[in-house]
Specification:
Length: 321
Amino acid sequence: MTHELSSTTLALLNILNDGQRHAGTEIAKVLGVSRMAIWKVVQRLKAYNIEIKSEHLGYRLESPLFLLEKSKIQKYIFKDVTLDIFESLPSTNDYLKNLPSAPPPHICLAEHQTNGRGRLGRSWTSPFGRNIYCSISYVFKKDISEMAGLSLVVGILTAKALEIVDQQFKPSLKWPNDIYLEGKKAGGILIDLIAEANGTCKAILGIGLNVNMKDILMRDVKNWICLEEMIGQKLDRNQVTGEIINSLFKGMEIFANRGLAPFLSDWKRLDFLENKKITLTSGQEIHSGIAKGISPQGHLFLELPQGLKQFSYGDTSLFKD
Ligand code: BTN
């Protein structure tokens, strides 16, 4: 289902968010639609595993669910952009990849992804209405070869946005671009680059961030965390999304002009791995050594028995004996 989030869905949840039972006829009257239309929206929401109880010809929502709202997010964006919010998409990155690339930047958000993509061909768990699945398509007047370091910069800018949302968040970054809180993964970055014929390059900046999923936190995936867990209450995803977009646009201007260099000190401050013993998997190679920060190109320095070596890609984890 790729349709945009409907105003009826938003309005229905606004009514049900008080946790009380509301009769279908009452909701239909307030929203000026038929009871059948309300029933259909409820069935759709139930299909996303949202706990809406049907009781005595009425509906009750087990725990409140605040959906993304364009007007609330737009308050944070000081730039000419196109902003689309979908109820469900296969993947926000794939949606933008398939659109013609032309300025202004295009932002795509979804409440749910059926085929959310992670790095290295992994999938990205994307339950409805809990997290942030955000992609931004940005055209750089650069050759694709000049784009190294972009994914690190997007991680840095996302971490900085979290620091603005709440000082209790002390984010760090695990090379190349996992967003960490208290030593656990809270989010990740996936960049798709498309070289264009005229020497420009279209970048799709994909950000996935676990926000309000404490009660359903992937039981099957260890070592994960969400923002809610850190501060003990649900967060306004509109604010978090707005701050991330704002931070990204400010930073993209800097990256477009000066590359990774202005961000190296931020990386040093946020580096989760520095001076820790880690394992790096890079293609077929597996190395264990001490992480020693990044090069000006964003490559990871690893101190190995044979000396210092740098790696341009791979996956890192803390070393386990
Ligand atoms: C990772 O593996 O850590 C990167 C995860 C990136 C997930 C985001 S969610 C929004 C965007 N759309 C996708 O399909 N993936 C990225």
